[in-house]
Write a structure and sequence with these properties.
The structure holds two protein chains of two kinds. Chain A is built from 25 helices and 23 strands. In chain A, helix 7 links the parallel strand 6 and strand 7. In chain A, the strands form five sheets. A six-stranded parallel sheet of chain A has the order 3-2-4-5-7-6, sandwiched between helices. Chain A has a six-stranded parallel sheet with strand order 11-10-9-12-13-14, sandwiched between helices. In chain A, helix 16 packs across helix 17 and helix 16 packs across helix 23. Chain A is of the alpha/beta class. By secondary structure, chain B is of the alpha+beta class. Chain B is 27% helix and 43% strand. Chain B contains four helices and nine strands. In chain B, strands 5, 6, 7, 8 and 9 form a five-stranded antiparallel sheet that branches. A four-stranded antiparallel sheet of chain B has the order 2-3-1-4, covered by helices on one side. Chain B is elongated and about 55 Å long. The chains are: A alpha/beta, B alpha+beta.
Chain lengths: 594, 169
């Protein structure tokens, strides 16, 4: 049999696993792989920063349900992946991250561009490998893809020393995996399923809380069946958005810190919580011991370690959401808790989910509602902060895998590259990154990627010139001391977009919002729309951290505080229009005199 | 209620597995009282015995988190009344010639052994459960303990039950 190099074997392994696209950047240690990619059919997307590459791979995976593959060189290339790997770990995204490594004889000597990638990534990967012998390479790839994509998905790192890539061997690809320490449970325990069904039939005021696990498992149909059969309202976590169409009459939207009031109240009044594929983070529950105090709790999750971690449960069911829900449904008969349905409807009417719109300025919520109205089927990614929470609140996700956000890690800079990855996965869909001006600049260099790789998306920047969520917390919890949150009105996002060959549109008047969106939709290149929005809009309702989720702050309960900023030397010198404009605005922050 | 729990962990005998397990304990804030590791009856398996302090909830989380590790094959909570627990300790004691007889007598009572005798020091080896080692330690404090090393507990279930990967059962 003909011998091939380790690098060629890498490409062969990827082909065997059906990989069509890789996101990455070449460098010294992974050059042998790039040499093989040169003559391969696999599409490689050249990112401009490894963080961009890994978030693209995540966006690709989240939008498609397939595994995302990214590649970086040793040392700084690998360390630049860290944020994305951690993000994928938190949000259970299947990723294969291939890193180059210094030759094995240099490993451990602090060689040029050497870092201990396995050591660094151990706490943030589902598993990782350093391949020291070329004979192990195919087995590692086979196992890695299996681990990344099965059970609770997650990122797997494969670290490949350069000499292993250059070594030659007779290639084979294993058919099966033999991992005696890894056997995920898919079927729920029959006894627990029976108990759950009994609780559901007995419950008088049940609420389903659906998380990202429902989307990963593809259990939307089963979730809706369960909800409709028993007329049970469904609240979702941030990661669960899209698990049930948000225009469904039983949808309560999001529960938690920035959840709808009616979702929070319904959860707190419930006598049964059916939690499916959720982790019960503090952002969903508020103070743990106060959450859903009167409810029995059923918790379905494929990861046994999530059950009982934060919230004590009555019926734990380890298994795949789709399979477990199916088994439960078989044991149910249609029923309706009339009083509860009425009560929930009453909650919806008493606490409608709205915002105070304005005619004089553009409200960020208005932009999102307009986008949603014009392209309801779009795939939305978000950055992190206010833009993310407004999107979670005002974008109605209708299908799974159409709302893609950095939930657990909440990594600023995620949205734009993730949008590019999503567009690569589903080129026929409109993809919109709902961005903040703070987050977008963290990965905006990927505009270059979007142009050269021809990945046209829309970036809708809700530009308030602040690190807005921090500003909001400073306003509420720090008496308006706006410490280091004013971004000084730079850059000019239209010029920035144009510098890369993208389109830029600035919108300063409410009446132009719609036209700008329509224009962007017509463009065949990435279009950055800089929506200059009201600066001090807050994300409300809001539950302060560590409080029960019924302690909800809204417009009425926040006392108006006039914020103070310390202007930056460069901003003072420039005396840009934006700064003047800000000072002139009555509700804007007061500039401290020195 | 906080107590000491002994957990036996069967793992792949591969480089880096100990680091994974130790790292897991460190980052999740679990306290390792002792940890011992060595090869088993199958050369491709290592077995760790970890003593951890915490309540039932902590032990449950530790067990679940260990099980999540790909290289961990089996995790078992060892119940004290069902298991044999052993630890080995070495004590280096500063000894004057006239004290030797007394110490040898003491060691005999504990079924320990004197494994090294020098002009000024002695090394005593004691095997037993944790309490026995601690008792020996207490008694030897009367003399000058120059050094003490303990292996950490190893544990095995009494009777025919064994710790095995499911596949092989």
């Amino acid at each position: 049999m003909e011998k091939i190099s380790g690098a060629k074997a890498v490409v062969e392994c990827l082909k065997k696993e059906g990989v069509e696209v890789i996101f990455g950047i070449p460098g010294g240690a992974n050059m042998p792989i790039y040499d093989e990619l040169f003559s391969s059919d696999i599409r490689h997307i050249l990112a401009r920063h490894e963080q961009g590459a890994v978030h693209m791979a995540e966006g690709y995976a989240r939008a498609s349900g397939k595994v995302g593959v990214c590649m970086a060189t040793s040392g700084p290339g690998a360390t630049n992946l860290i944020t994305g790997i951690a993000d994928a770990y938190m949000d259970s995204v299947p990723l294969i991250c291939i890193t180059g490594q210094v030759p094995t004889q240099f490993v451990g000597t602090d060689a040029f561009q050497e870092t201990d990638v396995v050591g660094i990534t151990t706490p943030i990967t589902k598993h990782n490998y350093l391949v020291k012998n070329i004979q192990d390479l195919p087995r590692v790839f086979k196992d890695a893809f299996h681990i990344a994509t099965t059970g609770r998905p997650g990122p797997v790192v494969i670290d490949l020393p350069k000499d292993v890539l250059n070594d030659r061997f007779e290639f084979y690809y294993p058919e099966n995996v033999h991992l005696r320490g890894y056997k995920p449970t898919y079927r729920g325990h029959p006894l627990m399923v029976k108990k759950a069904a009994e609780l559901i039939m007995r419950a008088e005021s049940p609420v389903i809380v659906a998380g990202g696990g429902v989307i990963i498992s593809g259990a939307t149909e089963e979730l809706i069946t369960l909800a409709e059969m028993t007329m049970t309202p469904v609240a979702t976590t941030l990661m669960g958005k899209g698990a049930i169409p948000e225009n469904h009459p039983l949808s309560l939207g999001m529960v938690g810190m920035h959840g709808s009031k009616y979702a929070n109240y319904a959860v707190m009044e419930a006598d049964l919580i059916i939690a499916v594929g959720v982790r019960f983070t503090d952002r969903t529950t508020g103070r743990y011991e106060t959450w859903a105090p009167n409810a029995k709790k059923i918790h379905i999750d494929i990861d046994p370690a999530e059950i009982g971690k934060n919230i004590e449960v009555d019926v734990p069911i380890v298994g795949d959401a789709k399979s477990v829900l199916r088994d439960i449904i078989k044991r149910l008969s249609p029923k309706i808790n009339k009083e509860w349905v009425e009560r929930v409807n009453q909650l919806k009417q008493s606490y409608p989910f709205t915002f105070e719109d304005s005619e004089d300025e553009i409200k960020p919520q208005y932009v999102i509602k307009k986008l949603n109205e014009i392209v309801p089927d779009a795939i939305v990614t978000t950055e992190v902060g206010q833009n993310q929470m407004w999107s979670a609140m005002f974008w109605r996700a209708l299908k799974p895998r159409t709302f893609i956000t950095s939930g657990g890690l909440a990594a600023m800079g995620f949205g734009f590259p993730a949008a590019l990855g999503a567009k690569v996965a589903r080129p026929e869909e409109v993809v919109i990154d709902i961005a903040g001006d703070g987050s977008f600049v963290m990965t905006c260099q990927e505009l270059a990627t979007s142009i050269t790789e021809d990945i046209p998306i829309i970036v809708a920047i809700l530009n308030n010139g602040y690190l807005g969520m921090v500003r909001q917390w400073q306003q509420i919890f720090h008496e308006g001391r706006y410490s280091e949150v004013d971004l000084g009105g730079v850059p000019d996002f239209v010029k920035l977009a144009e510098a890369y060959g993208a389109e830029g549109i600035r919108v300063t008047r409410k009446e132009d919002v719609e036209d700008a969106i329509k224009e962007a939709l017509k463009n065949d290149v990435t279009t950055v729309i800089d929506f200059v929005v009201s600066r001090e809009e807050n994300v409300l309702p809001m539950v302060p951290p560590g409080m029960p989720i019924t302690q909800i702050l809204d417009e009425k309960s926040i006392k108006p505080v006039r914020g103070k900023v310390r202007p930056k030397p460069g901003v003072r010198k420039r005396e840009g229009e934006r700064r003047m404009e800000i000072e002139e605005r009555e509700e804007g922050a007061e500039v401290m005199e020195e | 209620m906080k107590a000491k729990h002994t957990i036996a962990v069967l793992v792949e005998n591969k480089p880096g597995v100990l680091a994974r397990v130790a790292g897991l304990f460190a980052r999740r804030g679990y306290n390792i009282e002792s940890l011992s590791v060595g090869v088993t009856e199958s050369s491709d398996l290592s077995r760790m015995t970890i003593v951890v302090e915490g309540d039932e909830r902590v032990v449950e989380q530790v067990t679940k988190q260990l099980n999540k590790q790909i290289d961990v094959i089996k995790v078992s909570h060892m119940e004290p009344h069902e298991t044999v627990n052993r630890e080995l300790a070495l004590f280096k004691i500063a000894v004057e010639p006239h004290e030797r007889g007394e110490i040898m007598h003491l060691v005999e009572i504990f079924r320990g052994r004197i494994v090294d005798v020098g002009t000024k020091t002695m090394i005593i080896e004691v095997t037993g459960d944790e309490d026995k080692i601690s008792a020996m330690h207490q008694l030897l404090k009367k003399y000058t303990i120059k050094e003490m090393v303990r292996t950490g507990v190893i544990s095995m279930v009494r009777g025919p039950k064994i710790l095995k990967s499911e596949k092989e059962e």
